[in-house]
Task: inverse folding
């Protein structure tokens, strides 16, 4: 079978997508490291826990929601645990599972970091796009996520909705 080479327009889009994939995470890492002494993935874990009932999730559920393998999540949670931001406890419903719980100190850090982080997201992404482009970005992202084997055709299965919830509202004090 002959290779289906990219057209010039596809190549241009591909090169720009790769640049975003490479540059965007370090932009968010730098911002969060400076403001909250966290890398983006650690913030993401804390943000997802902050939205969970009782600020607690099974590690396996949390891994799926933050688009991570369990080993990668375990390393991040260990670092967060050492800082007193998260604690791991046995799951009461299933003794084989472990829960991650956002501590009060972790909750305070999320509340402090969230406004600056959302402002950075807005300045970096949404302020440079028109409302139509924001809709296109959402549609394109959903289509690309849906094509990944990890999502099994469902882009919402990888925590995209969970993160959308954390980025669109203030941290909820009721949880």
Result:
């Amino acid at each position: 079978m002959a290779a289906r080479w990219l057209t010039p327009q596809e190549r241009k889009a591909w090169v720009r997508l790769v640049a975003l994939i490479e540059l965007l995470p370090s932009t968010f890492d730098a911002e969060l490291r400076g403001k909250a002494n966290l890398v983006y993935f650690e913030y993401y874990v804390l943000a997802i826990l902050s939205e969970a009932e009782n600020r607690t999730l099974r590690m396996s559920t949390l891994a799926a929601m933050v688009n991570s393998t369990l080993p990668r999540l375990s390393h991040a949670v260990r670092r967060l645990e050492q800082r007193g931001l998260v604690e791991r406890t046995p799951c009461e419903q299933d003794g084989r599972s472990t829960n991650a719980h956002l501590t009060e100190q972790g909750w305070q850090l999320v509340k402090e970091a969230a406004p600056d982080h959302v402002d950075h997201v807005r300045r970096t992404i949404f302020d440079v796009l028109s409302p139509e482009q924001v809709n296109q970005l959402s549609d394109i992202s959903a289509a690309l996520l849906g094509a990944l084997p990890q999502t099994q055709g469902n882009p919402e299965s990888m925590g995209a909705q969970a993160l959308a919830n954390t980025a669109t509202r203030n941290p909820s004090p009721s949880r």
